[in-house]
Amino acid sequence: MTTNPRTLYQKIWDAHVVDTRDDGTCLIYIDRHIVHEVTSPQAFEGLRAAGRTVRRPDLTLAVPDHNLPTTARRDAQGNVLPIADPQSATQLAALRQNAPEFGIRYIDATDREQGIVHVVGPEQGFSLPGATIVCGDSHTACHGGIGALAFGIGTTEVEHVLATQTLLLKQSKTMEVRVEGKLGAGVTPKDVILHVIGVIGTAGGTGYVIEYRGNVFEEMSIEGRLTVCNMSIEGGARAGLVAPDEKTFEYLKGRPYTPTGEDWDKAVAWWTSLATDEGASFDKSVSIRAEDIQPTVTWGTSPEDVSGIGGVVPAPEDFADASKRDAVKVSLDYMGLTPGTKLTDVAVENVFIGSCTNSRIEDIRAAAEVLKGRKKANNVKWAIVVPGSGLVKEQAEAEGLDKIITDAGLEWREPGCSACLAMNPDKVPPGERCASTSNRNFTGRQGPGSRTHLMSPAMAAAAAVTGKLTDVRELVG
Amino acid sequence: MEPINHVAGRAIPFGRKNVDTDVIIPAHWLKTITREGLGEGAFEAVKKEPGNVFTDPEFAGAPILIAGDNFGCGSSREHAAWALLDMGVTCVIAPSFSDIFSGNAFKNGILTVALPQEAIDRLMEVARTDPIDIDLETQTVTTPFQDRFTFDIDPFRKHCLENGLDEVGLTMAQADAIGAHEAKAKVDLPFLARTPATVN
Predict the structure, then answer these.
(1) Of A359, A397, A444, B73, which cross-links A388 as Cys (Cβ 3.0–4.6 Å)?
(2) How many domains does chain A have?
(3) What residues bind [4Fe-4S] cluster, as annotated (chain A) (predicted)?
(4) Alpha carbon of B101: minimum distance to chain A alpha carbons (Å)
């Protein structure tokens, strides 16, 4: 092992190399594998066809999330309600059958621990600092918030990990994203990551693993770090990391899968040693002043299409790159926006507060703070708050947040991925706009023809109240 | 997996930049438990655009797709690769690809060829009327007009593609090395090597 100064990423990588090929490809050991219903059926089918088993079912956790309706899962008598969509039902049933068949732990849709895989992993202490974590979902980058090397994989890779507990990978380049200074009022972790993506672009991180550094991330809560790392993939990076610290250990201690006793002490000592060494170098560095970040929204159909809420819809001519100009033209047409329009003049008919990016208790609290004592605007037809897990839901209800939300006229739902990708019945109608706390504003992402504006939970709550994109600082001072 | 050595035929001149996997195959097509039949849903929204290349009979069944920068960004869904295969595409040419997509493509025997934008511009022009030829052995893309572009490819990937090798089977042959790593981790990093229910 080298004695040269190393980055956090290099240290985790080095601890997981099983084998190195001449061309530099490494066989990397995977510590934790989370499986959901959408990207796993073909992987299990592949195992069955080849007569293969799961190498480490004890390091694998299956949770349904993408397809689940967010309406009640049981009737008044406590009977489990059927899933209406036959294809969704088939996929959910496949996971329910595959997990026990291959000896994998499984959290059912009706269990209180169920939730979005990227909320459940850290919440259960299944995700740990310094661990390699994969899941057939690109937002696995999320778990980097607790200092894990976590990334999304395709279904064939899911099969590869199930069978071998390893992946064939080449070491990524490293990028440091440093944000320093003092964040202004109303500026949340979501605004930070949207701003970062605006700076580096959606392909800026391709081939890199990002480490988020600087006092802004050091001072940020664990849930905030999860939000930031979650959207690393929107900047093109397969993984994002924040060095684990006392806050991380405090967050994880006592969770169901968190190590205990001697293992815990040993873990904390190792986790502490993972921080990037003084003098370690990054292949690329980006530095951002915290003071430059405003409450941020997207206006286009790419997550890099961001603006401070005080801005206007840009014109294609504002962009130097010819292909970006064409893309902006197409996306403004899709979004139904005219250049020069003030963003705060853009009305929304739908509000979605949820997704693996923003559905944890701090997100629900932030939304409730804005909604408290206020009412949803009349032009907002559909507004739902979808907690990230059953445990987040319980916590929010214990704090009375559900009451604040429903009093304001928003719906309080059951946990799942929901309108982030509209695989379940939660969809934004064609041509309508949605103020959304999710992570992708792609064409058709929230339903065919849907128009998405990404923002923080507080900003989405503000939009629900005023019926248009709104600077939350005008509501909460 | 089908071995792939040579791809020749018409190429769909799409050319668009930042094509995300939601565009390649929208989420409502992901409710499948098999790998087949996704070609129908491929580029569903684009197919509704007037004059689009995907419904143009000229390019029906074309084995090659030409796209812009950052092809396959966004969601990790392997369905994007399956959808391309199902529509008959076995090679995508673009200036760059997202990391996850290029891995998924490779694992399904789809060749991804990265070429500079100038080469893409030229191929887009040729593709309108004529076929394109990609040779994996010599790592070249050629046209009937004597254009010749060479591309880089990871030697391991090249080997697997040419021989149609199954990566899972290859790795399972390294079970001893994996077992040795697990034994060492049990001592050095016991908190990662097991989860509480498996302690003892």
Answers:
(1) A359
(2) 3
(3) 356, 417, 420
(4) 8
Distance to chain B for A156, nearest Cα, Å: 7
Chain A residues touching B77 at Cβ < 8 A: 38-39, 154
Is the domain of A21 the same as that of A161? yes
Indicate yes or no: CB of B33 within 8 angstroms of CB of A163: no
Is there a single domain that holds both residue A128 and residue A201?
Answer: no
Query: Is residue A252 included in any domain, yes or no?
Result: no
**Boundary residue ending a domain (A169, A185, A203):** A169
CA A435 – CA A379 distance, rounded (Å): 13
In a domain, A396, yes or no: yes
**Together in a domain, A318 and A462:** yes
Average pLDDT, chain A: 97
A447 plus A385 within the same structural domain: yes
Confidence class for position B1, pLDDT limits 50, 70, 90: confident
Cβ neighbours of residue A419 closer than 8 Å, sequence gap 6 or more? A352, A354, A384, A386, A426, A427, A428, A434, A436, A438, A446, A447
Question: Using an 8 Å Cβ cutoff, are A455 and A463 in contact?
Answer: yes
Domain that holds residue A353: 296-474
Does A87 touch chain B if contact means CB atoms closer than 8 Å?
A: yes
Pairing relationship of beta strands A149-152 and A132-135 according to DSSP bridges: parallel
| Contact: B45, A58; criterion CB under 8 Å | no
Per CB-CB distance under 8 Å, the chain B contacts of A38 are 30-31, 77
Question: Given strand A149-152, what is the order of strands in its sheet?
Answer: A105-106, A60-62, A32-35, A132-135, A149-152
The answer to whether residue A190 sits within a structural domain is yes
* Mean pLDDT for the stretch of residues B62-83: 96
SS (H, E, C) A99-126: HHHCCCEECCCCCCCCECHHHHHHHHCC
Amino acid at B151: F
Same domain membership, residue A385 and residue A288:
no
Report the SS3 class of residue A406: helix
Task: Kindly list the domain boundaries of chain B, sorted by start residue.
Answer: 6-165, 166-200
- pLDDT value for B197: 66
Which of A134, A153, A169 lies at the terminal end of a domain, its last residue?
A: A169
Q: Is A356 annotated as a binding residue?
A: yes
- Counted across chains A and B, CB pairs separated by less than 8 A come out at 205
Domain containing A280 — which CATH number? 3.40.1060.10
Instruction: State the pTM of this model.
Output: 0.94
**B168 with A45: Cβ contact below 8 A:** no
For B6-165, give the CATH class: alpha beta
Structural contact between residues A473 and A188, judged by C-beta atoms closer than 8 angstroms: no
Q: For the segment B132-184, what is each residue's pLDDT rounded down to a tens digit?
A: 999 999 999 999 999 999 999 999 899 999 998 888 989 999 999 999 999 99
B8 and chain A in contact, CB less than 8 A: no
Mean pLDDT of A103-113: 96
Query: Which of A59, A165, A440 is closest, CB to CB, to B178?
Result: A165
In a domain, A413, yes or no: yes
Q: In this structure, are A187 and A156 located in the same domain? A: no
Question: Are residue A323 and residue A440 in the same domain, yes or no?
Answer: yes
8 A C-beta contact, residue A255 and residue A249: no
At B167 the pLDDT is 87
| Residues of chain A numbered 256-295 and touching chain B (CB < 8 Å) | 256-260, 263-264, 266-267, 270
Q: Which residue from B20, B26, B174 is facing A27, i.e. has the nearest CB?
A: B174
